Amino acid sequence: MLVGVQDVYYNVVDMERAVAFYRDVLGMRVLDNNPSWSSLEFFGARIGLHGSHGDDAGRSLPTLPQDQHGARAGATLTLRSTDLDADLAFLRDNGVRVIGRSDNPWGRLAVFFDSEGNILKLMQAAK
Prior knowledge:
17% of the residues lie in helices and 41% in strands.
């Protein structure tokens, strides 16, 4: 029987760097942490970080097709914002690379990379 979502996760090359990014920049709470797997909590959602192993160690992750709207394959974690401009300023002040943003009738959206090159989004709903 299905009873819920366990987690959503990203692959990472450098677990320490990734955990620091998700904890210190995005404000997620670390639940557990080791070189293979780390779990974080963010407003009731569980986010996982899966460490690369073996031949992948020390290399970058494969690049997904992407544009200013985000990744064109796989899933993307979208974080809800109440002030997109302030959140973008904070991300940029912390060295985060923002690759796109748009204002739409349904809301405002920004696309950015985490410390490992994974794509995430911020979304502020229209008022």
